[in-house]
Each structure stands twice: as structure tokens, then as C-alpha cells.
Amino acid sequence: MIKQSKPSTEMKTKICLLASLAFAAICPSILAQETSAAGSVYGPKAGFNISAPEGWVVDNEAGKGQGLPCVLYSKGSSWSDAKTGMYANIAGPEWEGVNAFVAMAIKEMKPKHGIPKEKIASGKTKDGHDYFINEYPATKTYSQWERVGYVQLPQGVAYIVLTSRDQASYQKDSGALEKVLKSLVYVEPKSEVASGQEYARRYRQLLDKHAEEQIEPLLTEWREKAPDDPDAWITSANYYFNERQTNISTKKPGAGDITLTDKKGKVAGSISFEQVEGSRKRASDLLVEATTKFPDHLDIWCGLAFMYQETGDFDSELSTLKKMVAYAREHPAQLKWLKGQPLDEPSDKFVPDKLHEYGLYYEEKENAEDDKRWYQIASLAMQQYPNDVQGFIDAAGYYADLGEWQNARELLTKAHETNPKSIGALFGLGKISAEMKDFVSARKYFEEVLKLETSGPYAQEAKERLRKLKKK
Q1: Which three-class secondary structure state does DSSP give residue 114?
Q2: From CA 9, how far away is CA 61, in angstroms rounded?
Q3: pTM for the model
């Protein structure tokens, strides 16, 4: 089953221009690549093409980290430093009418942006669709000067935002928005997006009706008719991985079974739900195929590793993680996570965190064989991501469990040198130093922990260990 792991506890910051317009329901895809004079944006129900005004370029990569599939800025600048930029997008699939969408946008933006100047301009796109423009001047709570063009499309709403860092730039560049709107041409949604959503709807209906005999043919058809839809493979794999058959027997009930009793209330048997023979292999085979079709989807790689983990096939799990790491290191800028969304942090942080989570599964089993597996995953992290300290901390934990204090100390020292502010490395060094009877160093490391963290679990334990060290 593809599942989402808990996010890192580190603070994550995203730049988001006119953030209240970046609605969570938006999930478009993009056709054009890199910078050019034209771009295309697709949502599940509608799409459009636009052209850059003279002196501007379209960039289909720079805004991806902010969930923006298509951004524009003047030649000679970049998305990060342009004094004025634009981005184009499609409202979520629940918004088919432009008036309702704009009313909601105004209401949500009012606390920060105030009341806009509505319909300061209007006209028609290149292919005759109506548009209008609202203006959002800077306020005391929002420094950007902005205007937004809204376009009513068949079964969808397109919007293009122009945003400037200051009033002078806004006055100079604001006319570029209308030029982009006049270049807009509606296009039908991509067939695999549209058909994929329809298959997903039908699949949910069959699940609700418990129409199991119809599900497998539907999943097969989905993969055949929408070959570019990762969800066809993910949904199929999850279905087979969780496929169960009902078994009624006179055996005593086990964990998760339903107890059957006779008329006198005595246990007479049980109802169990057993894995359908061969279904888990079928699930993993589908995800293996999916990793070749969609190698940039790390959620598919992680889902496959999880399936191997659940079936006790560690060798296949480790092999999968190695292949995922190899691809991630070669293509760090194009990686995706759930629903095809860009990673919410750099890949050289995101991937080591995932490796740590898989290793933690074996560490928590607390037996010698699984500890070796924990160390193998930690070693992969150390080798491939030497600038991330977590692999070194995990490997040090493995040696500490064996009582090999010097090996553990060397690894933690490496982690501390790599990131002097890593509380995990400092705390580990304090513990290992105490085990090695180096109480002076232990006190120093625990005191460093308290300088970096005044409250929380590390701080509390560091205080307790310092209290005990006073007696040494």
C-alpha cells in the first residue's frame, strides 16, 4: 500500500505569491518544457495555451516548487529576482464558474489584500472566451502590487496573476497581463487525465457496492486506456495488496478475527480474512512496472519498498531503495511525491529522511538480524548522502547497541563535523562519551545540546544526564 510517512519536524518555508489563490484542489500538469515563448497548463477538466509578450519568457520549471506550473518574467531576469512576474493556473475542479470562484477569492484575500478594484479591464481571449481583470493594490499587510485576470473556460476557470515588488514596477509592467490574456487559447483536457478521473470514480463506486467481480476488469482497462496515469498502477497495486478472502472455520479466533458463538454463547469458530494467494506478488509486480514507467515518482518507489517490507522480503526492499536513490541522485530536480506533486524539500534531504524511516522499522524490532538490516539501510544513506547526518547517527546507534563505543563515537564525530548544530549528533556523542567514561566530554556535549534546545525531549534528557554526571 502506498502510504505517506510523517513529515520531517524541521520548519519548511515556501515562497508563495498571492498565496490565497494557490488553492489546494489545483493539480494541473504542464506540456511545455523549460523557458520558451509559449506554455500550456492542464487541469482535470480544462486546459489552455498562452504566449509570452515581447520581452518576456515562459518558464515551466522555476515555479514547480511553489506548485506553479507556468510562470513568466522578463528576459534577462529570473523567477526569483524579477521585479514583476506572472503565473498562470487553473482553479480546482470544483470551480466551473468564474463568478463563484472570484467571489470566494475576494472573501479569502480580504483580511490581507483588502477590497480589490473589480473589473478594471475586460475583453476576449484569442479564441473568444471572456476575461476580466481585478486589481489588488499593496496594503499595510501585503507589500506586493497585483492584478489578476480571470477567464471563463468550458468546465473550468483559468487565472493569471501579475505581481510586482513595488508600485513603480507595477505601473511599468502591468499592461503585460492583458497581452497574455489576449493570447490565451482553450484546449481540451488531456485524455489520460480526464479518463483517469472517471476510472477512479467508477472504482470507488464498485468498492462501495462490494462489486469485486467487476473491479479487476476495470483496473485492467484503466491501465490500458490511460497508460500515462500513475494512479492506474498505484490503485491497482493497492487493491491487490489489500485483497482478502473470507474464511469461516471452527478454529479459535486469532488477532483481527471475528468470533463465532453457539446458542449458549460458547466459542464455536471464527471468521478470518486471509490474503488471496498470489495477490501481494501481483501488487509488487505492478509497482515494479510502474517504477519503469514513472521513475520520477518517489511515492511509487517507496510504496514498492513498503510492500517488500510487509512481506518480509528485505533483499528486494533494499534493492528497491538502492534503485530509488540512484535515480534520485541523477534526476534531483524532477522528482515527485503523492499525486505527482513536487517534493516539499530538496531531494538530498527528502530521500535520506525516507531511508531513515525504513531503517527505523527494523531498529524498533530490537533483534540482531533486523539490526543488521537497519545498518545496511543506514550505510546506503551514508554512502549516497554524506552531507546528511542521519545515516551516520543511525549507523552509530547500531554500533552502540553492540557496545562498540569507539566505532559509534567516530560516526557521531563525523556527523557533528558535517552539521555542528545537529542535536541528535551532539546528544549521541554525550551518551557515548559517558559510556566510555569520558565524563568531561559528555558534560560538554550535553551542555551544547541545551544551548541549541531549551525544551523538548533532548533537552529534558540532557538535563537529567548532566544531573547524574555531577555525581561522577
Answers
A1: coil
A2: 27
A3: 0.58
